Amino acid sequence: MPILTLQAKVLADPETERVLLDAMLCATKVYNGLLWHLREEFENTGKTKVTRQRLNAILKTLPRAKGYYSLSVQATRDEVIQAYRSFFALRKTGRTRHQMPGFRRKGMYSPLRYFDGYGFRLEQDRLTLSLGTGRPDGVRQVTVTLQMGRDVPIQRVRNVLLTYDAKSGLRAHLVVEVKAKEPKGHRKVAVDLGETQAITAVFDDGTALMYSGRLIKSIRRYWQKVRAKVKPPTAENPRKSRRYRQLERKESRQVNHLLHIMTADFVRRCWEAGVNTIAIGDLTGIRERMDHGPALNQRLHAWPYGKIVKMIEYKAGLYGMEVVRINESYSSQTCHGCGEIRKSNRVFRGLYRCDCGWRTQADVNGGANLFFAAYKVSPVADRRSSGAVATPVVVPIRLDWHTVHEPKSPVA
User: Domain Probable transposase IS891/IS1136/IS1341 spans what residues (predicted)?
Assistant: First the structure.
């Protein structure tokens, strides 16, 4: 059963919101309290024992631990353990100058976590959350309304994460099991991933579909130029500045938005065409295999191949389609017409031409080879002629806004 993470805005009356925010402050107090006792122990004895048994003993001395749900308290305890494990791993490799994990700032609203169906109940758009048994206001349970961005057939809610920030307010992140649609047919398709053509799909009737990656490339180049004006992290000072991280987030949001548009449109078209299996090139280890010089390597290594594959996999799962990964070795150099492997057949970026008469778009040729590798049959009836694959359909992908620009602000 497909699993999704959904985000929803939490609508609550002022009193309910106050109770939830107080529970989040309790989580911050508990987190900092655990850290304080571990630091105190280290200063007195020269060592510290970061185990569940030790932290459970400390939790019994923290009065704010009864201010929110018991399993959420255990989640806070596990956050402390993970923070120390990460710290020890960094210190072992000499990648940190700190002595201990840091405290959370005063007044911070820590997330409330609910796991495995315990402590919460979702009925349509009403979410009921359990709180601690020792709250001074006596409130042990609250109910809020969730405003979701889309209608999803939820079968079961696994986990709930409640967060807060000044801009978005209270947000609920739900890990849910959803009911998948049924495929309309039994057709097959193979997908070749690239940079200039982000997705090239070849169907079992020889038709080809292409999604250009040029807009993504231009966005990445733009933000690279903007970041060039900001002091970058160095080996001596690896910490990124606030401005540098802000620019990275802006770029990431725009690129992810485009990738979601692209993959959602592709999967929807496959489902409407009756596809039930998608074969996609396995790009594991591609960054280690490619070496085209510093400039091109930097560009290709940053290309989100893995992210595209994961998006296609989980979106296809919602439509009941299976995604299989295929070894793509030499698929771009092999002639689909005669099977000869010759690198020079790729005349330039977008053209593959062989002496046998096979001539088509280079990425489509790679997609046809992946199709043959996955299903042991060619998508082209007559392999002596490029046929329908010679004229692929190009799907235009655009952002919701007309231009991509950086708001005027001082460069830090």
Answer: 174-286
Identify whether the C-beta of residue 112 lies closer than 8 Å to the C-beta of residue 162: yes
Read off the tokens for 232. Answer: 């970058």
Spell out the residues 6+ positions from residue 246 whose beta carbon is closer than 8 angstroms to its own. none
* pLDDT value at residue 399: 60
At residue 275, the pLDDT reads 94
Rounded CA-CA distance 60/65 in Å is 8
- The CA radius of gyration of the chain, in Å to the nearest whole number, is 26
Q: Which residues of the chain have pLDDT under 50?
A: 297, 401-412
pLDDT of residue 302: 60
pLDDT of residue 401: 45
Q: What number of other Cβ atoms are within 10 A of residue 96's Cβ?
A: 15
- Beta carbons within 8 Å of 236's beta carbon, 6+ residues apart: none
Distance separating the N- and C-terminal Cα atoms of the chain: 47
Distance CA 362, CA 348 (A): 8
Tell me the C-alpha distance between 137 and 15, whole Å.
Answer: 11
Classify domain 187-395 by CATH number: 3.30.420
Task: Give the separation between CA 136 and CA 17, rounded to whole angstroms.
Answer: 16
Question: Measuring CA to CA, how many Å separate 267 from each of 57, 275, 318, 361?
Answer: 51, 9, 9, 22
**How far is residue 306 CA from its own chain's centroid?**
9
Rounded Cα distance between 68 and 20, Å, is 9
Q: Residue 89: which H helix or E strand, with range?
A: helix 70-92
In which element (H, E) is residue 174 found?
strand 169-178
Distance CA 222, CA 391 (A): 31
| Domain ranges for the chain | 3-178, 187-395
Residue the block writes with tokens 């097959």: 188
Q: How far apart are CA 43 and CA 103, in angstroms?
A: 16
Please tell me the distance from the alpha carbon of residue 240 to that of residue 220, in angstroms, as a whole number. Answer: 18
Q: Say if CB 412 and CB 243 are below 8 A apart.
A: yes
Nearest to 274 by CA among 374, 186, 181: 186
